[in-house]
Amino acid sequence: MLNVFRRNPRAATIEALYGAIVAQARSPVFYLAYGIPDTVNGRLDALMLHLAMAFERLSQGDEDAKAVGQEVFDRFCLDMDDHLREDGISDMKVPKQVRGVAAAFFGRHGAYISALRAGDEAALKTAISRNVFEGVDAPSVPRLAGYMQATMAMLDRQDPAVIATGKIVWPDPGPFGQT
């Protein structure tokens, strides 16, 4: 009856995992070397890109891993809700805005993951150009595509059950496609 007072036993795990995803997405190399715009939208795209890959890997695990993936996504939505409120969006508009962000996430997830799973580098580059660089074929698109391919391969080698405990390993984004 009083479930609102019951603490989520995985709360610390969800915070740790979401924190690791955010930390990777905020790595300065993405903005300095990859050319992702260091703007609210650019940072959101970098976050969604990483969240999509982690979410995909968790979705391949057992029911517990899938539940953690859902809780991490819920944490992302809560984070977006908090940011929108901090930006002065009215209480009446926040839910609609969060639904829009969630829809954008699932659109990106579908585009990135289908391209990564199919090994379709052209489709991946198109998705990156469209989403991260607002339709511009930026010079760093191939570098970001290479990073995403290596990241998904690295995540595929990690057990979803281990990731579900809050332990995720990301590659160093620095060396991909450097000339």
UniProtKB/TrEMBL annotation:
Signal peptide: none annotated. InterPro entries: Ubiq_cyt_c_chap, Ubiqinol_cyt_c_chaperone_CPB3, Ubq_cyt-c_CBP3-rel. PANTHER family: UBIQUINOL-CYTOCHROME C REDUCTASE COMPLEX ASSEMBLY FACTOR 1 FAMILY MEMBER, UBIQUINOL-CYTOCHROME-C REDUCTASE COMPLEX ASSEMBLY FACTOR 1. Belongs to the UPF0174 family. This is Uncharacterized protein. It comes from Pseudorhodoplanes sinuspersici. The lineage of its organism: Bacteria, Pseudomonadati, Pseudomonadota, Alphaproteobacteria, Hyphomicrobiales.
